[in-house]
Design goal:
0% of the residues lie in helices and 48% in strands. The protein has no helices and 10 strands. It has strands at 4-7, 10-13, 18-24, 34-39, 46-51, 57-59, 67-72, 77-82, 91-97, 108-113. The strands form 2 sheets. Strands 2-10-9-4-5-6 form a 6-stranded mixed beta sheet, with no helix packed on it. A 4-stranded antiparallel beta sheet has the order 1-3-8-7, with no helix packed on it. It is globular, with a radius of gyration of 13 Å.
């Protein structure tokens, strides 16, 4: 059973930066495309960034140029570098396979103050 453990969230002022990490248990990590998802209060969970097993990336328009997804297959970890944060980025952030295929982890809260 795959387990996902997200970390790195916190409270930051608008314009600030955070780096999220997601540790994935199991040896299947390197073969799977991975994604970072977020869910804001009262909204549906959305995919904001994804990375294939070979490193190709894709972003939702609202984060393009500000967020960078990366992965370290040796560490079974996927990262999300978030720069120029905006209050509308406030959400609980989760990682999962892209498309979703595993049980969700606990997520990590990101709060951006104006």
């Amino acid at each position: 059973q795959v387990q996902l453990v997200e970390s790195g969230g916190g409270l930051v002022q608008a314009g600030g930066s955070l780096r999220l990490s997601c540790a994935v248990s199991g040896s299947i990590f390197s073969f799977n495309a991975m994604g970072w998802y977020r869910q804001a209060p009262g909204k549906q969970r959305e995919l904001v960034a994804s990375i294939t097993s070979s490193g190709s990336t894709n972003y939702v328009d609202s984060v393009k140029g500000r967020f960078t997804i990366s992965r370290d297959n040796a560490k079974n970890t996927v990262y999300l570098q978030m720069n120029s944060l905006k209050p509308e980025d406030t959400a609980v952030y989760y990682c999962n396979r892209a498309p979703v295929g595993w049980d969700w982890g606990q997520g990590t809260q990101v709060t951006v103050s104006s």
